[in-house]
Amino acid sequence: MADNTQLALDLWWRYQFLRDNGHLKYVKKAKRCEDFVAGHQWPREDLDLLHEQQRPSLTINKILPTLANIVGDQIRNRTEVSFRPRRNGASEDTAEALTRVFMQIADNNMLPWKRTDMYWDGLIGGRGFFDVRLAFSDSLQGEARIRSLNPKNVLIDGDASSYDPDEWNDVILTKWLTLDEVEAMYGKKWRKELEASSSQLMPYSYDEQDWERDQFGDPSNEVFWTMDPASQPIVRAVRVLERQWKRLDRREHFVHIPTGEIREIPDNLDRNNISLFLGQNPDYTVITRTMPRIRWTVAAGNNILHDDWSPYKHFTVIPFFPYFRRGATIGTVESLLDPQELLNKVTSQELHVVNTTANSGWKIKAGSLQNMNIAELEARGAMTGLVLELDDVDDAQKILPNQVPSGLERISWKAEEHIKTISMQSDYSFGNAREDVSAKALKENKASAAGNYAAVQDNLERTDHLLARALLDLVQTYYTEERMMFITTDPLRRQSEEFKVNEVTPEGEIKNDLTLGEYDIVVTSQPERDTLEDSTFAQMVELRKELGIKIPDSVFIQTSRLADKNMVVEAIESQNNGPEAQAARQMDQQQRQAEIRQINAGAGRDEADTASKRVKAQQDMINMQRPISPDVQLRVQADLSKAKYQTDTDAMVKLKLKEMELRANPPKQEKANAGQGNKPRRTAKKSR
Q1: What's the rounded mean pLDDT across residues 593-597?
Q2: Of 20, 195, 211, 349, which is most buried with the most CB atoms under 10 A?
Q3: Cβ atoms within 10 A of the Cβ of 517, count?
Q4: Is residue 290 part of a domain?
Q5: Structural domain count, the chain
Q6: pTM of the model
Q7: Please, which residues have CB within 8 angstroms of residue 596's CB and are 6 or more apart in sequence?
Q8: What is the residue range of 387's domain?
Q9: Distance CA 91, CA 587 (A)
Q10: Could you tell me which of 173, 190, 182, 305 has the C-alpha nearest to residue 244?
């Protein structure tokens, strides 16, 4: 790490070039967007002018709730990263182990919250960044660390036009460190060098980008030079530029002869190990190629703190751009600035008109006041009005105020509608639908509104893929020792799982060897666990209620929001497996078997009866088809005539008996008619 003034100067010139050719323009835009989200939406000169004129300056911040609703959708829908084996020794078990390792790294770095911070940065300023590298603060083996970077401190290659950082030529991070941080990261030597050369840091210290730094306090730019020297170690006053850039390097590569695949030979692999590998794998050979490689240079002033090849295959910076077109990054807030300004100005003007209507001022004739002077009238008559002393006015008259323009309210309504339209967040997105809208229609409209941000969510999944790619290379390169890991499977019920990677078996084999194989990255979007459980539970209730699908009770409990699901499931299972439950199930089974036997027996009887009738019918048909002798025919005809006569006689007897019964017991109506005899009928006289 030799002092290299020219290298430091080259780094500073590169920083100045990127800063002045696009980055400062972005910083200015991002600062304005940040102010609008925070509610600082009026320029200082406009506020001073309005205050001087005693006119209102209202801020109706519609941007913050709009962004909060968009971020809420992102929080409710997380992504899940998994790995699938591709080739070269990859296996399903190792892919599952890599998926668990990613879960452990995400849990260890509180990735969901950092992902939300990056999402805020992207929506507000159009850019968000992760930083992925190896850290040794908690483990000597090294652990992956994920940080959320301030986009104002990340300078992207000005000639790049791709979303993927692998296609950038360089990226620069600018940051401020304390002397203690410099010593901890780069050694005590460089702390002494920086303390001794503090006067040389001035040309490389503050510039236009650092006039307003994002932090809790508002320190002056000259704080380092004016504070007590005893306080200097806790002040971030050392400016550090960190550049990751590509440079051609001639290196040896392994080549797989059957497939032609090329892989770089690690630096820690000496000639003996290379020869041993080639002897054990005859399908491989070694070639030398000149390829771009990442160089890592860190400078403070004219001091080079670090300059070496990067230990990573990719840039540590992972970008997120909500909308991206050929190098142009666009956020959500920048399109809402003008409608928000329109809403603030129109609303303030409305309030000003109302105020002037209530306190419009007075005009009086000179010397006409008897019980007070002009100053007293001005103080009491209108605190914000104007008193005019005129000669051509007979009596005191109140000045007629300006009428409220009829279209002023319409303009404010249009400004709010512009904000909804541009942000693609309708009333349904906020749950503010009319009362006559059904819950189903509200849900469908809200889901449709969420689809407006499908492009942003797609870019967020692209960022998740780039993050998983960087972590996969880091894990396969540096997670080579046997490690014990823990992942939280269910934070609500405090359930965790323990597993090992790179475990050496008694036979000498390595189980779940993370360093072997190539794997594909699969990024899927799914709702937050609570939302997913609610949706699953509702669907299962609908399946059982409407379709009659018999879903076990334990499955219902597992997808519910109960606090102790496992306890409830165990209680139900123990209750179902108890002696009483087993006896009841045995009795129920015996009863069902008896019912089945009874049904089978009845079916057998019916089948036998049906068969008997079928045989009899066939026999009758055969008998009918036989020829009949003349004597039999005469006997049959006689029997038929006798039966017919007998039937007719029986019918006549039944009719005679019915007639005799009616004569003996006539119906009531006939009795009434018979009692009246030949009495004349009374007719009602017609009224004239």
Answers
A1: 78
A2: 349
A3: 18
A4: no
A5: 1
A6: 0.71
A7: none
A8: 361-400
A9: 50
A10: 173
